[in-house]
Amino acid sequence: MSARGEFSSRLGFILAAAGSAVGLGNIWGFPTQVASNGGAAFVLVYIILAFVLAYPVLMAELLIGRATRANMVDALGQISGSRWGRATGIWGFITVSLILAFYAIVGGWMVAYGVQALADLAGWQSFSVWLESFSDTRNILFCLMFIALTAGIVTGGVSKGIERWSVRLMPTLFAIILLLIIYVMTLDGAMEGLKAYLLPDFSLVLNPELLISAMGQAFFSMSLGVGTMLVYGSYVSKQEKLPSLGASVALVDIGVAILAGLLIIPAMYVALHNGVQIYSESGALIEGDSLIFTVLPALFDTMGAAGTLVALAFFALMIIAALTSSISMLEVPVAYITENRGVSRPKAVWLIAAAIFVCSTLIALNFNQLFGLVIALTTQYSQPLLGMMLCIFAGWVWKRNEILQELRTSDEEAEHGLFWKIWPWYVRFVCPVIIILMFYRSL
């Protein structure tokens, strides 16, 4: 095992990388997009686009990472042999740190709502009311707790920290989501939600807005462009066949998104049956933070004693989804500081965590001005452009024979396989065009 650390098993890598991809967006964004965009027709389009767009970019990150065995800055510097590579790596490092800064605030809200369910069980009414209120003190305190949890895991390193916890957290996430689905399906109104989710409306499939929404969801849900998958790829054994490994990660990510829909949409219709408003003024299903912090808590309130236990399970699920993503985000700057500046891992983790917490505090104290702005700058603008840069590096800058050599380390027949016949030209021509179209539309 190299001094850098390495995933000790194939399963460990798949669960860690899928955990990175499975974030809050899968659970609060995907289901409502499905229900509003033609049900199962959207799911079908999403699955196709996940493999048409997200998988090739994911493979670019994994290949660059494993070939260079380095953090994002050094990896792009090595394959390009230029300052542009390193500059792009630093841009990715800054972007992922800013994403983590706002993500930690949202992760803190999940922790607060989870603690609130415990406070309700204990009968601590005034504490419960404070936990639900939107205040600077609550936001900053729970953001600090979330960052500390993330840092605590990353301090352990690759196999003893990230892998060990991913192998525990991801199966727990699946177990909680399945138990909640089974319970929700027994409630009145759930079948209506199931129909809205699963019955396809193919008339909507060719709607350009739907296609671009599905494309964006596929790209962003796999946490591409910011170096998380590149860094995880750098910890993969040379014996592993990367194309099948990448496909496994994509399948787990898609699977969680689809399961989240099986939970959230029927739950929304149960809420509607119980008298909770689930449609916005415009007639669309409520989504995003309003869904998680308004609609679902109102549903839990209508469920009596069982509601508190369901709330506890649901927010435990959300905390796990947030944590598996945040540990991969924190690892990107940590890998750079430990390898480039010779700082020990524990020191690097806590220094970066402290810097990100300062950014989070600034965002929380200027919430109305900064929160939406930081999200837009990082996820709508910076992330797709970084994804395009990675396609350019993998498709145009990195020498083809070097890429083939990397694939041959785990598969001597790589050049005769379907992956090698399609991927090099695809990542060179098709992916950048699709990403530019997406980016143009987001403007």
Automatic annotation (TrEMBL):
UniProt keyword Transmembrane present: yes
Membrane-spanning segments: 12-31, 43-64, 90-119, 139-158, 170-190, 210-233, 245-272, 309-336, 348-367, 373-398, 418-440
Protein name: Sodium-dependent transporter
UniProt topology in membrane: Multi-pass membrane protein
Species annotation: Bowmanella dokdonensis
GO cellular component: membrane
Keywords annotated in UniProt: Membrane, Transmembrane, Transmembrane helix, Transport
Chief localisation class: membrane
Cited InterPro entries: Na/ntran_symport (IPR000175), SNS_sf (IPR037272), YocR/YhdH-like (IPR047218)
Location of the protein in the cell: Membrane
